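4.2 Preliminary Data

To establish feasibility before requesting continued support, the project team ran the inverse folding procedure on a target of 271 residues. The structure was first converted into the token representation described in Section 3, and no sequence information of any kind was made available to the design step. The complete token record follows.
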């Protein structure tokens, strides 16, 4: 796994793809990111605005990489306003990514949680794993990265779930995953999305005795294990994660899905 690559590199935005009314994928070329492990993240500096952590949603061997950004505040709004040719700063890739399991894998993602799962699916397929993906969203218009997932899935299967039933399975991604786990046995679960999705998948992993990895988010400033802003139990999410294995997830299960810390380090409830 590439280690921390501390310096900021200026990269030019090559292309923006509108995924939904609130989400865009931004492509750029960077050879350090090309060596990233799926699940690793970059710190993205928007000049004059802020620096924010983002998972890599594409990791091309030719250096073509992307981030998939939901517009939630100042920095992400500025990222949405970028045009091809504009420059942003990139630090990383940082952190611990997913490990690749060659057996039968259930990959469950919701919203921008699909971002780090797309390159993971590609690597799992390349390693010969048997993959079933559950891609969840509230409604059809919020389904993102569907074409990228389809491209990454060579032999694997895909279930799309929407909470309002407007596309695919009607219900939560975790409910679709629960049905699959009831019918079939899996060797490994990979999950990313809202913390409710991760805590439910952890319960199911325990119930069905399946190994699991999940990518977590906490407030990040330095991204390299120095400032302590991303602490979760005994861990620093930027250095020890963002991908946590089942043992680590169980260790932090008291905090997970309940509270996180804001910019000032104060505990606030997880929505
Ligand atoms: C490892 C990791 C990977 C992430 N990957 C993605 C991704 O692929 N796509 C995506 O859309 N978002 C991702 N995020 C979340 C993203 O970093 C925040 O949405 C972004 O920082 C919001 O910044 P803002 O200025 O637009 O919003 P603000 O108004 O500043 O914040 C809105 C909310 O975003 C979160 N946030 C803000 N700043 C940070 C920060 N420095 N670190 C962590 N969370 C923050 C907080 O929950 C805050 O309440 C990731 C976060 C982490 C930690
Ligand atoms: S963001 Fe500074 S220690 Fe994790």
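Position-by-position output of the design step:
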């Amino acid at each position: 796994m590439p280690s921390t690559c501390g310096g900021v590199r200026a990269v030019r935005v090559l292309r923006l793809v509108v995924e939904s009314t609130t989400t865009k994928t931004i492509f750029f070329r960077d050879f350090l990111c090309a060596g990233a492990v799926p699940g690793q993240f970059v710190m993205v500096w928007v000049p004059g605005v802020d620096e924010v952590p983002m998972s890599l949603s594409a990791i091309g061997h030719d250096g073509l990489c992307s981030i998939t950004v939901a517009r939630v505040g100042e920095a992400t709004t500025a990222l949405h306003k970028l045009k091809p040719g504009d420059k942003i700063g990139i630090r990383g890739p940082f952190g611990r990514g997913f490990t690749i399991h060659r057996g039968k894998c259930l990959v469950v993602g919701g919203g921008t949680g699909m971002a780090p799962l797309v390159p993971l699916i590609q690597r799992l397929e390349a390693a010969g794993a048997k993959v079933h993906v559950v891609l969840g969203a509230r409604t059809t218009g919020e389904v993102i990265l569907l074409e990228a997932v389809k491209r990454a899935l060579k032999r694997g299967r895909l279930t799309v779930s929407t909470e309002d039933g407007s596309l695919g399975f009607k219900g939560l991604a975790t409910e679709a995953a629960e049905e699959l786990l009831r019918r079939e046995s899996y060797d490994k679960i990979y999950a990313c999305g809202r913390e409710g999705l991760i805590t439910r998948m952890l319960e199911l992993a325990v119930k069905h005795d399946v190994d699991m990895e999940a990518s977590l988010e906490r407030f990040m400033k330095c991204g390299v294990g120095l400032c302590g802003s991303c602490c979760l139990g005994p861990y620093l999410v930027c250095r020890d994660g963002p991908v946590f294995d089942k043992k680590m997830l169980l260790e932090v299960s008291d905090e997970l899905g309940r509270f996180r810390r804001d910019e000032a380090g104060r505990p606030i409830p997880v929505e």
